[in-house]
């Protein structure tokens, strides 16, 4: 991925990626002392491997174990085999939760990409104070979701929020943003796109800056319009960055939770009950940790399959110049 | 030059770290206590929202009498308390002693998470003491009891020329008064009673209905009584009561509205007596109006010692003091908090002499006809399902009949 996003014009797309591990092993000589070599490798891996093991791998394996049990967190676990999975798959709430999550992604992904691309294009120019703008757009990305979600909950408050107040000034009767089931998911999508567009912008900006200027000069000489240069030079050369953004945003989209929990809590009338909110409710409201763990694994499988499809499908549209 | 983005990221990261440090939760804290004191950690919810200093006063009096024990209180709002407690128990970081309401006591008693207590129970009202026994073993102590009454703003009634509520009122009287008192132009609302599970099972009893069949195997509230109760609750929203879009249902919304003198009638618990003592208008309480019959909600909280506690004796000593000492009785009565569960009724006399409200007798009159919440294994799911369907009716997304039928079908699935 890291070599892909630089978009260097030296390597044809068909060439398999280099294998840095093998290369290093051949170039770094440790006098055949494999043990010492392994020790050094372990030392360098430890800072990421230890936390990953402790806080990701161990909990994942534990949750797989819990998913085979009935457990209310208080009484001892009871082994039930695959019953939790069977129950979930025949439960309409599970499908509804996946449906809401897909609805979120369908609204969020195009919106955040278009907004992020627009910001990247605007800030890739010689605009005065562009560093300030770049920082400003990126600031929400590093802000706590709880703060952002509370802010948006207030902005979109149906009775006394700023948005409906402003709409009222121009004679529009604003909707019941997070109290109306039809508007609750759009509210969450809006807040999410606002917060994440800075991330998309930064990645695409890096991509834009590695597009060689000569290509634009050549295209100009050929008498192209600005739109044609965008469509046939910028977009194709940006596709590795786009691919990265889409993969990451899709995974984040499937895991959407913080903003939903704070803004709507899954309501009104279950309209924003996304999968992770459902996992939370099952565990902590309803004391059904087994079902919640099983649902986590269903989500994991879905994300895995979607990501594999994306990685396989990238050959068709991602251009490594 | 420092890059602005990097600077922002560093600042935000620092803020996040600070936040996560705060939210780390005292559940894992292990303060040593001073001079070899024994630390007893106590998790609770019932002092939250205005009675924190009262609990502190009880703690101070206990520590005065027991200089060897350091009680560390960890207060969590009710809405988050049971989530936090459940997680703490699962992780083995629960406090030595903690508070439970009656509905949750049964689950915890079943689980083996509670230590057996060895107490001389004479100090307690027998029925309340028995409520916290499980299979003949005393696993908890009653801590307090409370009920729900109708609060009303006397100034608003006088200004509108509406006669004040009496113990004989029915729903019809309340409805008529609420309509007369609602003045949307002035931002004044006539009534506040959320359309939730806890109001519904009570209204259902007032309408003469039953939540579950006699043997508890199915719901019985998809009935004319159930529809009447649901209609009574859901028709208030947007007519005599603010809607969800106007803020109803958010924390402290109703108490703030009443405190600001913009709410004429309010269905709430007697634990609000203390926090409302200083409002700049006259108010009083009355037993809730009924329909076919009267029925008031009664709540009992208890306290328990964790089976994992390293200091069960000290923890129990603290709980006995907390539930039955004279300091507690005096503090609770003075503050107008929930009532102490003591057997000696004479000690409760000072409670009746205080004002506001003048009609404290209503607190005891309400106990004549009480209704307890239905308790099932999948309690929270039942409560959420009923509240959500009532919300659908209140917001006009479903007819009342449809909402009640859907709620009954969803609860039947949980039984």
Automatic annotation (TrEMBL), chain B:
Signal peptide: 1-23
This protein's record includes keyword Glycoprotein: no
InterPro entries referenced in this protein's UniProt entry, alphabetically: Bact_solute-bd_prot1, SBP
Keywords: Cell membrane, Lipoprotein, Membrane, Palmitate, Signal
Lineage top rank: taxon: Bacteria
PANTHER family per the UniProt record, alphabetical: ARABINOSE-BINDING PROTEIN-RELATED, POLYGALACTURONAN_RHAMNOGALACTURONAN-BINDING PROTEIN YTCQ
Name this polypeptide is given: Sugar ABC transporter substrate-binding protein
Species for this entry: Jiangella rhizosphaerae
């Amino acid at each position: 991925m890291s070599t892909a996003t630089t978009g260097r014009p030296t390597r044809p797309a068909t060439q398999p990626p280099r294998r840095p591990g093998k290369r290093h092993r051949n170039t770094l000589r440790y006098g055949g002392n494999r043990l010492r070599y392994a020790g050094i490798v372990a030392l360098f891996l430890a800072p990421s491997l230890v936390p990953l093991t402790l806080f990701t791998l161990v909990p994942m394996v534990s949750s797989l174990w819990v998913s085979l049990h009935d457990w209310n967190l208080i009484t001892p676990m009871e082994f039930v085999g695959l019953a939790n999975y069977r129950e979930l798959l025949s439960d309409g709430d599970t499908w509804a939760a996946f449906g809401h999550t897909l609805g979120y992604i369908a609204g969020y992904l195009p919106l955040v990409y278009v907004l992020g691309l627009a910001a990247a294009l605007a800030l890739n120019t010689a605009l005065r104070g562009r560093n300030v703008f770049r920082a400003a757009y990126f600031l929400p990305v590093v802000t706590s979701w709880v703060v952002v979600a509370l802010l948006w909950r207030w902005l979109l408050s149906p009775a006394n929020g700023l948005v409906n107040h402003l709409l009222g000034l121009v004679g529009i009767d604003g909707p019941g943003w997070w109290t109306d089931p039809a508007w609750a998911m759009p509210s969450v999508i809006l807040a999410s796109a606002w917060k994440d567009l800075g991330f998309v912008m930064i990645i695409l900006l890096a991509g834009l800056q590695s597009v060689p200027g000569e290509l634009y000069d050549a295209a100009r000489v050929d008498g192209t319009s600005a739109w044609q240069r965008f469509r046939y030079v910028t977009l194709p050369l940006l596709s590795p960055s786009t691919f990265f953004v889409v993969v990451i945003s899709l995974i984040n989209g499937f895991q959407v939770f913080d903003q939903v929990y704070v803004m709507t809590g899954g309501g009104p009338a279950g309209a924003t009950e996304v999968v992770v909110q459902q996992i939370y409710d099952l565990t902590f409201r309803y004391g059904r940790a087994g079902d919640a763990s099983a649902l986590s694994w269903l989500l994991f499988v879905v994300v895995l399959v979607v990501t594999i499809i994306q990685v396989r499908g990238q050959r068709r549209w991602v251009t490594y110049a | 030059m420092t890059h602005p983005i990097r600077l922002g990221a560093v600042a935000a990261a620092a803020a996040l770290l600070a936040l996560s440090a705060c939210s780390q939760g005292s559940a894992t804290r292990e303060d040593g206590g001073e001079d070899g004191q024994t630390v007893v950690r106590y998790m609770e919810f019932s002092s939250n929202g205005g009675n924190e200093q009262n609990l502190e006063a009880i703690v101070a009096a206990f520590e005065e009498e027991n200089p060897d024990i350091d009680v560390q209180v960890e207060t969590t709002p009710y809405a988050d308390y049971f989530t936090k407690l459940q997680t703490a128990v699962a992780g083995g970081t629960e406090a030595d002693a903690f508070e439970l309401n009656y509905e949750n006591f049964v689950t915890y008693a079943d689980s083996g998470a509670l230590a057996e207590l060895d107490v001389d129970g004479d100090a307690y009202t027998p029925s309340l003491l028995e409520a916290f026994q499980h299979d003949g073993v005393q696993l908890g102590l009653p801590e307090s009891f409370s009920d729900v009454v109708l609060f009303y703003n006397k100034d608003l009634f006088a200004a509108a020329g509406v006669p004040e509520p009496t113990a004989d009122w029915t729903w019809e009287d309340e409805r008529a008064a609420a309509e007369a008192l609602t003045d949307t132009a002035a931002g004044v609302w006539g009534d506040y009673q959320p359309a939730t599970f806890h109001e519904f099972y009570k209204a259902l009893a007032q309408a003469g209905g039953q939540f579950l069949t006699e043997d508890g195997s199915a719901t019985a509230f998809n009935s004319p009584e159930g529809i009447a109760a649901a209609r009574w609750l859901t028709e208030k929203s947007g007519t005599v009561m603010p809607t969800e879009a106007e803020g109803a249902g958010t924390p402290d919304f109703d108490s703030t509205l009443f405190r600001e003198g913009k709410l004429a009638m309010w269905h709430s618990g007697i634990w609000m007596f203390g926090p409302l003592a200083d409002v700049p208008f006259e108010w009083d309480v009355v037993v809730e109006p009924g329909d076919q019959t009267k029925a008031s909600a009664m709540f009992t909280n208890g306290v328990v010692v964790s089976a994992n506690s390293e200091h069960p004796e000290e923890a129990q000593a603290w709980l006995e003091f907390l539930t039955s000492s004279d300091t507690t009785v005096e503090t609770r009565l003075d503050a107008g908090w929930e009532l102490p569960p003591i057997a000696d009724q004479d000690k409760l006399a000072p409670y009746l002499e205080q004002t506001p409200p003048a009609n404290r007798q209503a607190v005891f009159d309400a106990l004549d006809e009480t209704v307890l919440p239905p308790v099932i294994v999948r309690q929270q799911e039942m409560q959420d399902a009923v509240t959500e369907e009532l919300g659908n009716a209140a917001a006009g997304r479903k007819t009342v009949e449809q909402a009640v039928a859907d709620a009954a079908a969803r609860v039947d699935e949980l039984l």
